[in-house]
Amino acid sequence: MQPDIQRSNSAVTVSLQDLVDCKVSNEQLAEAFDEDSLGIIVVKDIPSEFIELRKKVLLQASYLSRLSLESLEKLESPEGFYLTGWSAGKEKLKNGKFDLHKGSYYVNCSFYKDPSLEGPTQEECSQFEKYKAYTTSNLWPNEEELEELKLFQKNIKDLIKLMIDVSLQVSKACDIYCTQNLDNYQPGYLESIVKNSTTSKARLLHYYPYKEEESDPSEDSDWCGEHLDHSCLTALTSALFLRETDSSIEILDKSPDPLSGLYIRNRHGDYVKVNIPPDCLAFQTGSALEEVSLNRFKAVPHYVKGTAVPNVSRNTLAIFLQPSLHDKVNETENFADDEIQEGKQINHFREDHRLFSSCSITSSAGFDRHITVFSPEGRLYQVEYAFKAVNTTNITCLGIVGEDCSVIVSQKKIPDKLLDPATVTYLFHISPSVGMLATGSIADARSLSMRARAEAAEFKYKYGYEMPVDALAKRMANMAQLYTQKAYMRPMGVSLSFVSVDEELGPSLFKTDPAGYYYSAKAISTGPKQQEVTTALERAYKKKKKDSEVIVKGDWTKVVEFAITTLSNALTTELRKNDLEVGVATKGSFKVLSPDEIDERLVSIAEQD
């Protein structure tokens, strides 16, 4: 099931000359970047040399990918976390597999500030020697190896310089807006950051063509999944599509697949396909700009859908414009302070992370090694890492309370075809009337399921009746909270969801987290797509609230069907019976649906469509 997609391009478009002349109004900028916007602005009337430069560089991206394996290995930078030079198959998708669908060529843009630089200055490299993802110098291909790569370095540098020139005009407009609307905003801050940065990076992306006998990579929801940019601004060219054979590369006038392109999720949860004309540039807001503008400008989730036509590649160039390591991002911290955790560097320019804001992370120096010691900022880093572990399995789930039932639905992923699917589960019977879904580390999940069963059994033995679901949730949360106080036990990397139809509370749904917090809700979601699912559930609840206290009326089958539909839409993929785990709590019982029972609900959904 695919999300509802609006086909029109509703991005705000302005001319470069209007930006230069400061004629872009605050209203136009707010329409492009504020909390109700698409978070993108298209700039037209770019200097004429841009059209030819874009075509040259994006064409050369395909030839760059055709260099010998030995030559490409020389362009790799393991010490820079493969964020300098060539990178292909080095990062993992959310499903744990290596990403073999695309190759990237990274270029540090410090030469814009000083033509002699190919990375940060020697002083910066010495001062911030831990930050190899930023301080590693550019690696350039041997242009003599392929005739088609002649002048590659000159071409891409010229294109980057032109794009940053335009970026400065967009930054100037943002500065004017912020100066007029924010107290104590430093005039010209963003323009200065973009102009003088020694850490901004360009990413030349080549989406490999696939052959007819291969499966369509665009069917893989992890291929280029929904994400936020974390720079101040991201400058984008439109994509160039090429038909590739072993002996030739042909530039296509347009995408052969009308569904291929950039999709942005708007504030209503709908997906808008944004078309960037070939002679224009687009600029997206990132989390850093959101921070700098005190949330006046908002970063937006977006994803790229490649072409589903065989033998066609998709090439594009993006520039992530951000502060230098020594630049102040607020009154007390510089950019390096925000990036102190080295792992953050690895994913800063990649699409597979979601929540990192480059202006919100403070130094963890030393404190991330201790479970029970607060950092000076009042944070327990090991507990925060446990929260991140919840999303590592890339499984999203949701729970919903119905009129006479409670339902939990989760993705089910089998990591290896040789495994018995029956042995891979995150859904557990705890007592005859209580079910539990664990999201996160499977080993921790099984351990906590055994502990929950033991607690429920001990309660029944002691008091003579089944342990109420609220008491069980509270007990499991208390144990999790205890692990944050004492160093003898690490926090568990799972979030627990409990469902039951309680004699006193009726249909119930409880959730606990690794910090020991628990609560009851009408609906919940956990996992990488939690925000998307939660937004859909909130919209559904608002529609029903006038005449009902539950989101879905009807028996458990209706609740299950709604939950599956909501999850499928959030994941932007069609779910099959083997992709799901479903648990249903009714009065006095809890059952896990078999694959055939799940298939019955899927058939019912299809018939309704």
UniProtKB/TrEMBL annotation:
InterPro entries noted in UniProt: IPNS-like_sf (IPR027443), Ntn_hydrolases_N (IPR029055), Proteasome_alpha-type (IPR023332), Proteasome_asu_N (IPR000426), Proteasome_sua/b (IPR001353), Proteasome_subunit_alpha6 (IPR034642)
Coiled coil: none
Family: Belongs to the peptidase T1A family.
SMART domains registered for this protein in UniProt: Proteasome_A_N
Keyword Lipoprotein: no
One of the protein's GO biological processes: proteasome-mediated ubiquitin-dependent protein catabolic process
Domain spans labelled Proteasome alpha-type subunits: 367-389
PANTHER family, per database record: NON-HAEM DIOXYGENASE N-TERMINAL DOMAIN-CONTAINING PROTEIN
Species of origin: [Candida] arabinofermentans NRRL YB-2248
CDD domains linked to this entry: proteasome_alpha_type_6 (cd03754)
PROSITE patterns: PROTEASOME_ALPHA_1 (PS00388), PROTEASOME_ALPHA_2 (PS51475)
Protein name: Proteasome alpha-type subunits domain-containing protein
Subcellular location: Nucleus
Entry keywords, A to Z: Cytoplasm, Nucleus, Proteasome
